[in-house]
Every structure is written in C-alpha cells, then in structure tokens.
Structure to design on (376 residues):
C-alpha cells in the first residue's frame, strides 16, 4: 500500500484543482490522482505542485561542484536546493581541467547508482567556449574538443548529459557527433554570428544557456546569438530571473518572442545558496555576495544566488506571468527539454512534488516519493 496525500489545492501541470488525493506507490511513482485513499492518509494545507527542475546548478549548501566533485558534495547540494523546491537537478561543472571533469563524471555516476535524491545527470558548461565571452570561466582552461572529452561525454552511466559550447569553437560535424551520442547540446558563452548559430542548431543543438548573458548581442545588421535564439521557435532558452543577469523588460521581450514552452527558469546557483557565507574562492579570485548579487573580484557576475521558487516568484511578480505558467517554466518545460516525463502530477509520473504556502514559500519537497525537505 502507498501513502495518500490529500492536497487542499493541487496544480497538476495544467490546472489548479481543490481537495485532490494523490497516492504515492512504494516504487516512488504516483499510483493514483483523485482516486481512493490508502490506509495512510495525510492532509496538506497549501498548494501541491510538480517538483522544480533546475538544469544549471553549480553548487549549494556551501559546496561548489568544481571544488568538491564528490558524491557527498552532490548530496549536500541537493539538500540545499530541496528547501527551495528543486526535486531534480543537473550538477553543473564550469570550465576546468580534464581530471576534474572526469572526477565529476565519476561522482555523478556513483550518485545515480546510489539514488542520491535530485541528481538526474550532469551539465558540463564548457570548456569549449569563446574567450571573448568567457564571463567568470577560467581562460586558461578554455580549449578545443579533444578525443578524451568526447569519450567522457559519451558515457551512458551519467544519466542526462548536457554540454554548453560555443559554436565557433566546435565544428558542426562534432556537434552532430555529440547529438548522436545522446548529448543535449546548448549554445552559450559565444561570440558567434547568426549564421554559425543557425548551423549549430541545424546540426542538432537544441538550447541556449542563460539567454542574453555571455553571448553575441542582437544588432540591426547582425542578429547574433541573442537574436537567433529569439527567432528560432524550435530552440529552448534558459533564463536567470534574478534581476541582475536579465532585466524584467528583457524577459518580457523573450516571452513575447518565444513560443509557449520554450523558456526555462534556471538558477546558475553557486555554493552560497542555502548557506550563511558571504564569499568563496573561485580559481584565483574571490566571489562576494552583496544582497543576492554575486560579483567576482575581477568585476564580473559570478553565477547567482537565485533559487528555483525565487525565480518563479520573480517572473510572476516582475513580468506578470500567471502562476501556472511560471510553475511550468520551472518544471514541465525543463522536463520536456530534457526528454523526461516529469513536471506533472499524474498517474505513473515520478512522485517529485513541492508543497507551497500562500506566499509561495516551500513547506515540503518530495523526490521519488521520499520527503527531502520539511520546513520547521
């Protein structure tokens, strides 16, 4: 027998319903919605929604994945983000040495085998990026695609594999090869022309990493990466809705330009999320938090202090996005981009869910039917 939760309100991914029973089976999936109840029943005050999915998580809980590419670090990062409604995430390794990439891959593989809550794969953000648009990435580690890295990306024990690259730095033939290996290719940290971007998309790239940031801008005679991302209806775009990376006006423009379902909320979160610390080292620099803004000692933005439910609130409050759509941008649409069956509360779906109070604060989080966070 499973456990039945009776939600005061439930958003199933499509609509908001009242007084709905959700039964979680012993296998961690949802066995029934709106049906009978099991012997164990719990009533939930608030709004029950699908678990949030973050495809760009550099760290949390005081841990940065680059600095501690271990299973223990992934557990801590997952715990930190679960308090903000994230029930599935891609640990993200920014540009680094090959041995660090290999160690991170091994940690992800072990975490998946051990069932570490939240971990669904890995996002390699670099190292095949444009030096002109490197942002906070370490220039000394930026490099061309090698056979060693190609072998790493081909590993099928890593779950979902996402790679951010600059199309001017990776041949179209190699993009096709990556896609054939099952890698989700995103474009970013790039100074490419629109023609190069179009060629990469035609070769199988499907998304853009943090739209507007660290990419060739839209000009009247050259659409650049930003313009092409807005033009191409078939491409997904991540947005860091923290008020520092992208303005509300730029988000509104993207909402008007892109088809529904092609914009995803991401955090690009660093180690300070879920931590009381105010600074941390990053390679040979120091990143400092002032309020919710992270700045490197060399002056550029260095990731974010954003969390997923905060991104949902921001896009609702700043851009007038209705709550159901804001939630879809943080759950259903990332699931569709990654080819998952998540982002919904329906029979047969993985029991990844979040309970929100009336202020959209997270009360509880479940991953595969297991409670991973409960607010005191």
């Amino acid at each position: 027998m499973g456990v039945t939760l009776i939600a005061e309100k439930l958003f199933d991914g499509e609509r908001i319903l009242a007084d709905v029973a959700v039964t979680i089976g012993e296998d961690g999936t949802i066995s029934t919605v709106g049906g009978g109840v099991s012997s164990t029943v719990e009533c939930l005050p608030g709004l029950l929604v699908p678990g949030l999915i973050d495809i760009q998580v550099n760290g949390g809980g005081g841990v940065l994945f680059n600095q501690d590419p271990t299973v223990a670090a992934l557990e801590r990062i997952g715990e930190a983000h679960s308090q903000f409604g994230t029930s599935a995430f891609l640990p993200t390794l920014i540009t680094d040495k090959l041995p660090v990439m290999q160690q991170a891959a091994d940690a992800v593989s072990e975490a998946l085998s051990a069932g570490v809550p939240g971990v669904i794969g890995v996002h390699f953000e670099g190292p095949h990026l444009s030096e002109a648009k490197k942002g906070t990435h370490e220039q000394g580690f930026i490099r061309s695609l090698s056979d060693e890295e190609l072998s790493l990306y081909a590993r099928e024990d890593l779950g979902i594999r996402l790679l951010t690259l600059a199309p001017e730095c990776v041949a179209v033939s190699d993009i096709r090869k990556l896609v054939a290996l099952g890698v989700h290719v995103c474009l970013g940290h790039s100074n490419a022309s629109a023609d190069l971007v179009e060629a990469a998309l035609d070769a199988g790239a499907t998304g853009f990493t943090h739209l507007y940031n660290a990419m060739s801008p839209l000009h009247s005679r050259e659409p650049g990466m930003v313009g092409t991302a807005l033009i191409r209806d078939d491409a997904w775009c991540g947005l860091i809705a923290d008020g520092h990376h992208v303005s509300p006006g730029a988000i509104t423009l993207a909402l008007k330009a892109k088809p529904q379902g092609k914009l995803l909320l991401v955090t690009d979160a660093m180690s300070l999320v879920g931590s009381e610390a105010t600074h941390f080292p990053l390679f040979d620099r120091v990143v400092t938090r002032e309020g919710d803004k992270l700045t490197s000692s060399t002056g550029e933005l260095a990731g974010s202090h954003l969390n997923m439910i905060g991104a949902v609130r921001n896009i609702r409050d700043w851009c007038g996005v209705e709550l159901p759509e804001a939630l879809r941008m943080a759950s259903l649409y990332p699931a569709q981009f990654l080819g998952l069956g998540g982002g919904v509360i329906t029979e047969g779906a993985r029991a990844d869910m979040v309970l929100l109070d009336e202020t959209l604060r997270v009360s509880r989080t479940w991953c595969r039917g297991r409670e991973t966070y409960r607010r005191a």
